[in-house]
Amino acid sequence: MAEILQTLASLSVLVFVVSSMLAMGLNLTIAQIAGPLKNVSLAVKALVANFVLAPLLAYVILLVVPLSEAQSIGLMLLATEGASV
Prior knowledge:
Helices cover 79% and strands 0% of the residues.
């Protein structure tokens, strides 16, 4: 019974995340998506912050704060996902 509930909970989370992303994405126009990309400097800074600075900060935190292996993996996953900043 516990396995069934765990599977159902995991599936529910997946459906929620995918449907939320689709709902948000379908409300945007092409101009609204492409608009922020016209400011190249801002786009590059955001990419550097998301993919360089956030993982680097997480790595420094891992060096300073003793965490379990599971917590360390979770922190690095959160730091390396694209929307962390």
